[in-house]
Each structure stands twice: as structure tokens, then as C-alpha cells.
Amino acid sequence: MKIYSDFDLTNYNSYRINSVCKRAIFFDSENEIVEYFSKTSLDNCVVLGNGNNVILTKNRYENDFIIFNGNYNSYAFCANESQLRAEAGMLLSDLSLLALKHSLTGLEVFYDIPSSLGGAVVMNAGASGEEIKDVLSFVRFLDLETNKVREFSKSEISFEYRNSYFQKNKNNIVLSAKIDLIPGDRGSIETKMNLIRDQRWLKQPREFPNAGSVFKRPPGYFVGAIIDNLNLKGLVVGGAKISEKHGGFIINFNKASGSDIVKIIDHVRELVLREFGVELEIEQRLI
Question: Which phi and psi (to 5°) does residue 86 adopt?
């Protein structure tokens, strides 16, 4: 376990918002996590994966930040070599490359999604009609009410579009997951991975810090089309802007604060509700 005081969070959130936390803690083992939470509650800390789906709204936090990024990221193959267990801090990009190395299919769509496995499980991350739930068989987690480690099968996690049991019941810490893949042709797997990556880079503003899609897709609508209809592309607040490349993204183009991003979100939600009668739901997590 590594602990840092007055820790700069700029490189631990994908908006690259400048913010500092009182302490940052990087765990290396499940036992360390259980021991830490036997003495404190989740109310006193913030849990981050790789910080891709979050908006830091403060310049400084008087909290411990529990960070799973570059740590707690071990994996092991099971007796069935198409199944593996991976810890919550492992990045989806690394998992996808591992699957490619072993000619296993099922993770191609996650190759270019910047998320930790734990964060992906919590929000049921996905793209192009595929979601992390599709390749999971069970999840191991720490129940903070009892400080006991438990396991849930996929059917017990109540996965929904960008939602899960862990999103609704926040008093739990995802520790690891078992992933079920299928043997495939390595060349075909690599081709699909590269195609997905190239398509995303064509459509998304990857040249600026951002945290992906800001809003969940409302039934019967596409967020990007709504933004286009309202002529909101290029809207600027402080150092934040609605991307001209994709209206569903907000970018940090000039040292944006979390407040800048939140102001854009509030403005968009207000206009969309007034003009379309649709209440947009934020996909990103405000901290």
C-alpha cells in the first residue's frame, strides 16, 4: 500500500481538472482493502478507477482518495484457459491486449475504452451494443456494511444500461471479476480491435481531455442529434466547451474547472427539457 499526502489528481481524471486530495491511497492487495475499511467508512473517502467517468468539482478535497490505477491489477487464468480472474484496477485496454495475445474474443470493443475493470463493472461500460456484463460470470466485492468479502453471479448484479447493483448500492467495493471469453482467430480479433479504435478516433474529440459521453442516451433520441438541433456545439463556459466534433462530449480545451463543465451540463439539461420535454440523465459521476 502506498499513501501520498496533498496528492495532485490532475493525471488521475480524464478531464485533466486540477484538483488536490488530502491523501491518496493505492492498495496492492485485497487484504489491505479489507483492513482499511474495517477502520473507516466510505463516507470519509472517494473511490476512483482510472478517473475516466468523473467530474472533479472542487479544487481541494479533505478526503482520502482510494485509487485503482496502475495498482491492484493482477490477473490469473483459470483451469479453463478461456476464463480469467482480474483485479479491479486492471485497465480494459490491458485486458483486451491480454485476450488478443491468447487469441480470445469478447473484449475487442473495450480495447479503446479508458476504464478500469472495477469502474466498468459498476457502470456496466460498453459500446456498439456490447457491455461488460456480456463477458462476466461473477464479481467479488467488499460489502462495507458487514466488512465481509462476497461474490455475486452475473444474474445477481441486476445489470442495466450503464447501471448495476453496485451503482445503486454504493456501500460496496468491487474487488475482482471472472471473465469468460471464447477462443478465436487472432488476426480477426486484432482487426476488430483496430477498426473500433479507428472509428472512435474519427468520431470523438480524442485530441482534448474529456470523459466520454456526458449523458445517457434517452429513449427515442440521440444526444448528439439533440445538441446539433439546438446549435449547442462549440458552446464555451470558462475553459470547457461542447465539442464541435461530437455534441455528446464536453472537452477541456483551456484549463477548465469542474464548475465550468457542470455549468455546461446544467445549461444543456435545461434547454433539452424545455425544447424536447426530455430530462437528460448524466452518465458521468460528479464528485
Answer: -135, 145
